[in-house]
Amino acid sequence: MTPPSATDLKVRPTRGNGGFGSGFEDLDPPRGRSDGGGSGWVALLKAPNDIDAHLLTGRLAEAGIETTCLKDRSAPGAWLHGGSDPWAPVTILVRKIQLEDARLLLAELAFERPAVDPDVETAGGSRWRGPLAWWVAAVGLGLLFTALGLVQAANDMDQCSKPAACSIAKP
Questions:
Q1: Distances from the Cα of 17 to the Cαs of 48, 54, 61, in angstroms?
Q2: Per-residue pLDDT tens for 30-86?
Q3: Average pLDDT, stretch 99-113?
């Protein structure tokens, strides 16, 4: 059976962070028959980008859960990447029969990982030091090259005060 297309999925719009990590969206369980089974594909969750989706599908495959991914190509400017935008959201699909196993695995992963507060400074320093260093370097190099250009222009003006040193002699 082939994976469903984007129009076949009934996915809620993003509503912020889901329960499984930063940027993941929780999806509703599939509606329909309550007896389970079947080999159809159902949406497990929506990953914020291609990298997170790849890591999660690898972990699911390691547990023996068959997965497939469906990229969201509806973002403005997605055509610039030729259909392979690494920052586009990705819906992760699993077989309907393996949905509960996949949810249990996600719950285990959520408990294994320590909680991270994005506002807490890391050991490497705060967030503004990196961009500040780049701006200081850019402004410093700009001033250096401007000063070198002015010195060179002043040098050329001194040489042109003597007619023999200039390429065009002044009358």
A1: 10, 19, 24
A2: 555 555 555 689 999 999 988 999 999 999 999 999 999 988 878 777 777 776 777
A3: 89
Is 121 or 48 the better-scoring residue by pLDDT? 48
Smallest CA-to-CA distance from 98 within 57, 161, 33, 40 is with 40
8-11 long-range contacts, Cβ below 8 Å, gap at least 24? 9/43, 9/70, 9/91, 11/43, 11/46, 11/91
Three state DSSP letters for 95-159? EHHHHHHHHHHHHHHHHHCCCCCCCCCECCECCCHHHHHHHHHHHHHHHHHHHHHHHHHHHHHHH
pTM for the predicted model, two decimal places: 0.48
Q: How many residues does the chain have?
A: 171
How far is the CA of 154 from the CAs of 71, 82, 150, 157, 159, in angstroms?
Answer: 59, 51, 6, 5, 9
Are the beta carbons of 51 and 34 closer than 8 angstroms? Answer: no
Please check whether residue 11 is in contact with residue 27, taking contact to mean a CB–CB distance below 8 angstroms.
yes
Contacts of 100 (CB under 8 A, 6+ apart): 36
- 18 and 10 Cβ atoms separated by less than 8 Å: no
What is the spatial distance between Cα 16 and Cα 7, in angstroms, rounded to a whole number? 22
